[in-house]
Amino acid sequence: QVELLESGGGLVQSGGSLRLSCLASGTHAPIRSVKTLGWYRQAPGNEREGLASIGSVDGATHYASSVKGRFIVSSDSAKNTVFLQMDSLKLEDTAVYYCAARWGAVVVTLSESFFDYWGQGTQVTVSP
Fold first, then answer.
1. What gap in Å lies between CA 61 and CA 107, rounded to an integer?
2. What is the pLDDT of residues 12-55, one digit of tens each?
């Protein structure tokens, strides 16, 4: 099993920054295995939206157009941790943010069906 634990959410003013972290652990999350890690968000009344993904082999990344240039995904594979640096935050970035993981495959996709494991989410609220 794989457990994903997000942290770093909170309240920030418009134009500010936050850095989210997600730590993966569990018997099916060996550090040396290839993997793809991703970030998603869901605002009230909206469908879940894929934001970014990163592969463990060469660090290739993929971003949604809505966050490209403002958000940066990175990872520390040795610690099974993925990060999402969020800059120039806007009111519309308010949502619950989730990390996702797939072990044993590297495809930098935003397709939800690719990922096997999901975190519980962390709230990000952007105020005026």
1. 9
2. 999 999 999 999 998 888 878 889 999 999 999 999 999 999 99
**Tokens 């993904």 label which residue?**
53
Please compute Rg for the chain using Cα positions.
14
Spatial contact of 30 and 76, defined as CB atoms under 8 Å apart: no
pLDDT tens digit sequence for 55-105: 998 899 999 999 999 999 999 978 899 999 999 999 999 999 999 999 989
Q: Phi/psi zone of residue 20: left (φ > 0), alpha (ψ -120 to 50 degrees), beta? A: beta
Residues near 90 by beta carbon (within 8 Å), at least 6 away in sequence: 14, 126
Rounded to 5 degrees, φ, ψ at 69 are 90, -15
